[in-house]
Amino acid sequence: MRLDKLLANSGFGSRTEVKQLLKNGAVTVNDVRQKEAKFQVDAAQDSVEVYGEAVVYEEFTYLMMNKPPGVVSATEDNWDQTVIDILDERDQLKKLFPVGRLDKDTEGLLLISNNGVLAHNLLSPKKHVDKTYFAKIEGVVTEADIAIFRDGVTISDNYTCKSAELVILGAENGVSEVEVTIQEGKFHQVKRMFEAVDKQVVYLKRLRMGTLHLDETLGLGEYRPLTKDELAALTSFEK
């Protein structure tokens, strides 16, 4: 791999910025200063450092974020802050993107990566990847609603959702707490499903996507790399 590509993919800047690092003599390969952008390196074998900091190359990056409300699930937006905007500067340079979308006012589990194959498979209806949400609902959710969700809620004239699992956790002062599991990701789907049974979602948080569960120790807006076990389970969807 070209040295400038390895550095850029590792979050040390754009190709232009990396070339400047090389020109400044900031980069060593196996303890030898290297200024050639096209110099070939073996990411698995060679020791590369920038100003003495070891470069740890990973082909793909996988981050779990506890998405805060008010932030959009996009790589860029002309009006609102995005989930990429709240990453550290080094991570922002890795060409990451959110795997799927959470509505602007929805909280919870969001996978951020640069692995397009995994993203496609996690989002493909053919893979039947469960997504579980915790929701607060204005109105009393009933057994009849559970049956409707199980049979498939019609959310528009030409679309009926796949079977969904609805679990009632409790209700107080006319507000129900539920968990709902779906295998799709239509626009505002959970909200539209409850609107179809004359109820309104007042709070929504994603808890799970496939084998990946939200780390509840993460505060809103915080994120961390996936563990080896989380990644191993998740990448089974690539097959």
Automatic annotation (TrEMBL):
GO MF terms held by the record: RNA binding; rRNA pseudouridine synthase activity
Known EC number: 5.4.99.-
Family according to the record: Belongs to the pseudouridine synthase RsuA family.
Native source organism of the sequence: Listeria weihenstephanensis
InterPro entries per the UniProt record, alphabetical: PsdUridine_s_RsuA/RluB/E/F_cat, PsdUridine_synth_cat_dom_sf, PsdUridine_synth_RsuA/RluA, PsdUridine_synth_RsuA/RluB/E/F, PsdUridine_synth_RsuA/RluB_CS, RsuA_PseudoU_synthase, S4_RNA-bd, S4_RNA-bd_sf
A Gene Ontology biological process term: enzyme-directed rRNA pseudouridine synthesis
RNA-binding S4 domain ranges (all copies): 1-59
Protein name as annotated: Pseudouridine synthase
Keywords linked to the UniProt accession: Isomerase, RNA-binding
Pfam families: PseudoU_synth_2 (PF00849), S4 (PF01479)
